[in-house]
Amino acid sequence: MNGEIVNRVAKSKLISFDLEEYYSQRKRVMIDLKDWLYQGLIIKEKDFREQVKNHDWSFYSEKNVAIVCSVEAIVPTWAYMLLTISLEPVVNMVVLGDFEQLEIALFNQALAKVDLDKFKDAKVVVNGCSKLPVPDYAYVEVTRLLRPYASSIMFGEPCSTVPLYKARKG
Q1: Which sequence spans correspond to the domains of the chain?
Q2: How far is Cα 145 from Cα 22, in angstroms, rounded to an integer?
Q3: Alpha-carbon distance 19 to 128, whole Å?
């Protein structure tokens, strides 16, 4: 042995899957329908349509928008649909639900574009240390997507992994 330090991690055939690469950097905002209710109770169609028509939708340009109603109120389904019609042309993403639902939708959209064939018979490490708020949902979803392709799935960092799955041979 000549004393040379060999980086076995760098030489391994592990493929690292970093969910941070799929995290949308666009701003997240919420529309709370409580601010659009007539007397704080219901959607009054004529007034609501007028509010939607006169609202400045440019504020939401290229943002990710969650629509909620944080109070007990009578909100017909068409009201959410009408907001979506106004938002959809200007936003990156719009969902009915809170920020958690928004994150789920954003990760679903991003992960749907992954070419899973490049993970065929690969040893994959799903990176575990994240500086961005990657939800647990994304880890579950990427595992679900990778399992039929990968020969093994691990969690953590290439130098310290937790084995999760190993395909049966033959």
Answers
A1: 8-24+108-166, 28-91
A2: 14
A3: 9
